[in-house]
């Protein structure tokens, strides 16, 4: 399928639904990039873009895209990805996750596959998944900034932004404990082998599959190569034994709760500490379930007692879905312990319906 793009001598003009893009000069004779660079900036900077044209894109991004052969349709592919990310610009976590994976796919299509993004087929998607499991030379340390600002202490519109040379599409996360041990042993952490976590493999399928579904909905393609992969499990089952468990054992949890209980006995102010720890443990809650989200904050009114005497925590979970969790799901003794801790906190606050948990 042909993309909605026209080419005139020396210029590349893109026609995407809702976009009136100005002509961008193509750098004839320039050496095509073989090193990946960041294409999309932070969640906040993304909202500052002009989605009707390309005037607010980083100049380094425009130069980078225009260095690719015009047959790769790099700018056109960029606009399609930008349109896709815009549909998820209301949630920062989702945006960051989808930006990471679809940006990798765009860079891989341009540099490795050397073809337009929407020209990828099932075999290309399979090769991309293999590449994600072992991305040679595309792995670097975890960094905070994709671009570096050149200017004074105060941010101005005239400031120039350049690519952070340390940025890589994939990052190898190293814990503080590993860094400390490596420093003591004087070993080099740069030789660590990159392993994509099982959760990340699933996110690649979800993000890239959603991108192509978006392109199909926009009438830009008729195929979704990631949905066409029949045996996704062969990618998800690798390196399972190499991933160290990050969960606490029952004995470790017992020590944490006993410590919190001792703190509460010594200082009533730590009744809240005990309540938070016991609730997280007994109800299998995420931290965000107690902290809250942009559109919802938990209150003590969200802990409600039913006719049988059990306490239920009503929560707005991931995806803005309402749910409830019963106290003491792990055992009946945990239920009694959680209920007792909850009652102590209510008495300490000296009101039956206290306000936000803070």
Q: Major beta sheet, specifics?
A: 4 strands, antiparallel
E-strand count: 11
Overall pLDDT level: 78
Sketch the topology as an H/E string, one letter per element. EEEEHHHHHEEEEHHHHHHEEEH
Radius of gyration: 25 Å
Domain count: the total is 2
> Oligomeric state of the chains?
single chain
Q: What share of the residues lie within helices?
A: 40-55%
Topology overview:
Blueprint: E1 5-8, E2 11-16, E3 19-20, E4 24-25, H1 43-46, H2 59-66, H3 74-86, H4 92-113, H5 122-133, E5 139-141, E6 147-150, E7 160-163, E8 170-172, H6 176-185, H7 198-217, H8 233-236, H9 250-266, H10 271-283, H11 287-291, E9 303-305, E10 311-316, E11 322-326, H12 332-349
Parallel strand pairs: 5-8
Antiparallel strand pairs: 1-2, 2-3, 2-4, 6-7, 9-10, 10-11
């Amino acid at each position: 399928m042909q993309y909605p793009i026209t080419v005139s001598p020396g210029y590349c003009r893109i026609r995407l639904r809702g976009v009136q893009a100005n002509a961008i000069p193509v750098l004839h004779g320039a050496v095509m990039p073989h090193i990946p660079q960041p294409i999309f900036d932070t969640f906040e900077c993304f909202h500052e873009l002009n989605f009707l044209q390309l005037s607010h894109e980083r100049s380094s991004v425009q130069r980078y895209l225009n260095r690719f052969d015009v047959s790769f349709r790099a700018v056109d592919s960029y606009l399609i990805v930008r349109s896709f990310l815009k549909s998820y610009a209301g949630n920062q976590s989702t945006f960051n996750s989808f930006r990471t994976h679809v940006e990798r796919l765009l860079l891989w299509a341009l540099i490795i596959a050397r073809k337009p993004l929407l020209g990828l087929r099932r075999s290309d998607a399979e090769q991309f998944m293999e590449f994600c499991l072992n991305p040679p030379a595309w792995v670097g340390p975890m960094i905070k900034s994709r671009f570096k600002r050149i200017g004074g202490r105060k941010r101005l519109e005239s400031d120039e932004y350049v690519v952070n040379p340390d940025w890589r599409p994939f990052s190898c996360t190293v814990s503080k404990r590993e860094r400390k041990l490596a420093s003591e042993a004087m070993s080099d952490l740069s030789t660590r082998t990159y392993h994509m976590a099982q959760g990340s493999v699933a996110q690649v399928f979800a993000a890239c599959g959603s991108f192509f579904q978006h392109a199909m909905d926009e009438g830009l393609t008729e195929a979704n190569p990631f949905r066409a992969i029949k045996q996704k499990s062969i990618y998800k089952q690798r390196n399972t034994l190499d991933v160290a468990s990050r969960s606490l054992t029952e004995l470790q949890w017992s020590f944490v709760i006993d410590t919190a209980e001792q703190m509460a006995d010594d200082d009533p102010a730590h009744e809240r500490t005990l309540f938070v720890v016991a609730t997280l443990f007994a109800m299998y809650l995420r931290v965000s379930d107690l902290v809250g989200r942009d559109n919802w904050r938990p209150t003590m009114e969200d802990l409600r007692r039913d006719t049988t005497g059990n306490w239920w925590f009503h929560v707005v979970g991931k995806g803005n879905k309402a749910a409830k969790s019963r106290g003491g799901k792990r055992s009946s003794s945990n239920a009694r312990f959680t209920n007792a801790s909850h009652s102590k906190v209510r008495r300490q606050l000296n009101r039956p319906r206290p306000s936000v948990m803070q």
